Amino acid sequence: MSTNGAALAAITGIGPVSRLGIGAAQLAASAPSGTLAADADADAGAADAGAGILELETFDPAEHLGKRGWKFLPPVTRAALVAVRLALADAGELPPREAERLGVVVGTNFAVSEIVERIDRALLTNGISGISAVECPNFSLNVPASQISVAHGMKAFNVTLSNLFSAGYEAVLLGGRALRSGRADAVLAGAIEGRPPAALHTVAGPAVDALGACLLHLETPRAAEERGARVYGWLSGGVRRVLPDEPGHGRRTVFAALDALGAVPPATVHLCLPVGTAQPAARRVEEDCRQWAERAGAEVTTTWGSPQATVTSVLAMARHLLRAPVAAGGAAPRTAGGDAAFGVLGPQGHLVLLRVAAPGDPA
């Protein structure tokens, strides 16, 4: 069965840089109970306590980027460039493609927070003379995505999204829609994060990561089919909503968003939800999803907290895909039972749902 016209994109490469693992193999081997996020009993009190920022001590850019060309780049850009290389390598042998047909979409909240803070302190202390000429060009949130475009010749577009916690899934959805509309033949999409502000633990959980990235290689279903690519899953659709504060309206919005993912309900709904001050609203969303799933015959799993900020949800989806059976040769998606919905809720009420169909047996 052909996949053409059925999916927005084929997910053919995964490039994680995180404490859970660097590279697809390490992420796949990470323990199911690994510290992706807080446990389901996390509450506002635990989040308010805070446990500091956890460093990514196993990451050495030189192992992936060589000894030159990256030393004046901030850590988050180094991680992004490594994630690109890992995703491209994981995608297998790729055909030559025009630079104008390759795009980048990145979600981030804190890629430059540390740099902006240092520049702010320098200005307040020493005035304009205190700003580092080396560091100043890296102050803008879209610099890492631009570095990816320059380094890998991806000229179709580079886009940076920044909604808190939800921007990673928004990036994947935008990348898929760009492929469907013919804007590109392949897109790198996902999330990157630098050192967050200390206050993040009030909605992310008691401990947060200093660095992380996870980028996915997306290509058109036809391209994956033609080159016989190994396919982790087919991005078949997605929705983005802003939830109303009123619980009844919010429930109807959640139900309608899940219904919009397709006539056949997904087998599983995987949620990433905030904790701390955002947890009461998140609990309502989880309950709404469980009510919908009971009616639809689906299961619901929940990851509480976002220690990797925007990267958390992308890592959760990537780990699920890495542990599921994959197909070679552009095999078609199953029509039911083997697919999942992935959802993330931001503290400001941004809800993003993605539908990913698992590949079936090779045709």
Give a brief description.
The chain is built from twelve helices and 13 strands.
Question: Explain this structure to me?
Answer:
The chain has helices at residues 24-29, 44-49, 62-65, 75-90, 113-126, 143-152, 167-180, 201-204, 221-226, 247-259, 279-296, 311-323; strands spanning 9-18, 21-22, 53-54, 102-107, 157-161, 186-193, 208-209, 212-219, 233-242, 268-273, 299-304, 339-345, 350-357. By secondary structure, the protein is α/β, with parallel strands linked by helices. The strands form 2 sheets. Strands 1, 2, 4, 5, 6, 8, 9, 10, 11, 12 and 13 form an 11-stranded mixed beta sheet that branches. Helix 10 (247-259) crosses helix 11. The longest helix has 18 residues, at 279-296.
Radius of gyration: 20 Å
- List low-confidence stretches: 1-5, 38-50, 330-337
What fraction of residues sit in β-strands? 15-25%
Order of helices and strands: EEHHEHHEHHEHEHEEHEHEHEHEE
On the 0 to 100 scale, the average pLDDT is 87
Q: Structural class of the helix and strand makeup?
A: alpha/beta
Main sheet makeup? 11 strands, mixed
Globular, elongated, flat, extended or rod-shaped: what is the shape? globular
Number of strands: 13
What's the helical proportion of residues?
Answer: 25-40%
Number of helical runs?
12
Report the end-to-end length measured between terminal Cα atoms: 7 Å
